[in-house]
Amino acid sequence: MKYRLYCQREPHISFKFPSKTYTDKRRKSGNFKRSCVREWFSVFNFISYSVSQDGLYCLPCRLFPDSSHRRPIKLIREPYRDWKHAKEDMKMHATTDYHQSSMAKLEAFRTAHLEPSSRIDATLTSGNQEIIQRNRQILMSIIKSLVFCGRQGIALRGHRDDDTDKGSSTNKGNFKELLNFRVDAGDSILEKHLNSCKKNATYTSKTSQNHLLLCLKNYIQNKIVSEVRALDIGPYYGIQCDEVTDSSNWEQLGLVIRYTVHGHPKERLLEFKECETITGVEIASKLIESLSNAGLDTQLCRSQTMDGTGNMSGKYNGCAAKFREHSPKAVYYYCSSHDWNLVLCKSSKVKEIHIMLDALKQLGIFFRYSPKRCRRLEKCITDVNNTREEDSKIKSAKFKIFCETRWVEKFTTIQLLIVYQQSVQKEDGIPKPLQSHRDF
Predict the structure, then answer these.
(1) CB of 5 within 8 A of CB of 59?
(2) How far apart are CA 68 and CA 100, in angstroms?
């Protein structure tokens, strides 16, 4: 339907309205012609004229009908043509509730069109953005506390972490105490959140902690994988893995990715994976699963480094052999620390070396389990350092216990023993062979 609105703001319009003949005995001809009056559009700014149907419509009621009221057919669904009583009917129509409701809707539509910032959806979007920004700031405070504990190697949980009984323990754990510290330091957004949020929306429970830690893990893994894919020499990498038993007596498989960036080697811990069994087949399947989930192609792996145990180095069912079935170019290398340890164990068949290693073991036990002896050793070293120049002072005041499986730790202990023995020989002037811990 075609509408045309006439008002005083359109003086150029020269359209002539069709007339309608009415019976009027006061006229000599017996009838009288009436038509739509142009001034009505100035008095009643809500009406519109339809050229095709030669009638008036109420534009607000036509475009934004109010279904909660009973409305007349004229002016809304059918054109109005009673020119004789038009002025009175228009005044009456302007006072009705449904017309005023439609007028308010039309005015709101016009305002929203001219001022988009006042629209409801824009206002809701702006409010949602503020809520999202505030929630992100709250999560940022919580995540920073998690990252701090992770970087410093601090446990998150305390004696009671679920807040079921606030009087059961004053220590809620490092994570929640760190959140309280942030509040005391002036984090007003976090303070308002913790004081006003619902109990099931604090995002500080152990379940939320685990979810956020999982998000951090995925973020770190994505950063590592992106760095590997962006290498100049190609997305090639090597893996290192070993299993260890945690405090809950679960076998944890640690997976490390090794690659080079501009000629400098980098080693990044990719993941810890729980292992119910530590057979070579099971460990190899865990490795393949972890690499695939992280987004790394096993075909691009060029080296694998593990220890020399049977489940790792087995010729047929070892982890290295099973992994090479998926990545044929992944060459297996023994762990150098284990290699040195095996060499040292083989050489311990020589009587003198066996006595020396046994003396190291007994010496570590001699000092490790006696605080009194440790304090005596520290005092002796302090007295010796007071009489020496800076470059000849003994750097370490504690004797490390002898490690049974790692050559690096054995070497540290042996090197420390050499320093102590040289110090004793320098003071006495007579070299003495070390036979046991009693000769130290």
Answers:
(1) yes
(2) 13
Please write the tens of the pLDDT for every residue from 288-310: 999 999 999 999 999 998 887 77
As beta bridge partners, residue 240 has: 256, 305
Distance from C-alpha of 419 to C-alpha of 328, rounded to nearest angstrom:
47
Question: For residue 264, which amino acid is it?
Answer: H
Residue of 124, 143, 144 lying closest to 132 (CA atoms): 124
Which residue in 313, 320, 241, 243 sits closest to 274, CA to CA?
243
Task: Please report, as a single letter, which amino acid is at residue 68.
Answer: S
137 vs 143: CA distance, rounded Å: 10
Burial class (CB in 10 A: 0-12, 13-18, 19+), 433: exposed
Q: Which of 251, 231, 234 is nearest to 243 (CA)?
A: 251
Rounded to whole angstroms, what are the CA distances from 138 to 72, 182, 365?
A: 56, 11, 50
Q: Name which of 243, 209, 219, 352 is nearest 295 in CA terms.
A: 219
Out of 41-50, 136-145, 181-190, least confident range = 41-50
Instruction: Express each pLDDT in 396-429 by its tens digit.
Output: 777 777 776 666 666 777 777 776 666 665 555 4
Q: How far apart are CA 335 and CA 423, in angstroms?
A: 34
Q: Please give the radius of gyration of the chain, using alpha carbons only, rounded to the nearest integer.
A: 44
By C-alpha distance, which of 162, 149, 131, 133 is closest to 212? 149
How far apart (Å, rounded) are the C-alpha atoms in residues 396 and 156?
A: 32
**Alpha-carbon span 380 to 370, nearest angstrom:** 16
How confident is the model over 99-136, as pLDDT tens digits? 888 888 888 888 877 877 666 666 666 677 788 888 89
Tell me which residue of 70, 43, 61 sits closest to 3, measured CA to CA: 61
Sequence-distant (≥ 6) Cβ neighbours of residue 84 within 8 angstroms: 22, 34
Distance CA 17, CA 76 (A): 20
Report, in this order, helix, strand and coil percent for the chain, each rounded to 5: 50, 15, 35
Sheet holding 264-275, edge to edge: 264-275, 251-261, 237-245, 301-306, 331-334
Report the C-alpha gap between 304 and 336 in whole angstroms: 12
Q: Name the pairing type of β-strands 331-334 and 301-306.
A: parallel
Closest by alpha carbon to 175, among 137, 139, 148?
148
State the Cα–Cα distance between residues 360 and 395, nearest whole angstrom.
Answer: 19
To the question of pTM greater than 0.70 for the whole model, the response is no
Q: For residue 349, what are the CA distances in angstroms to 357, 358, 404, 433?
A: 11, 12, 16, 19
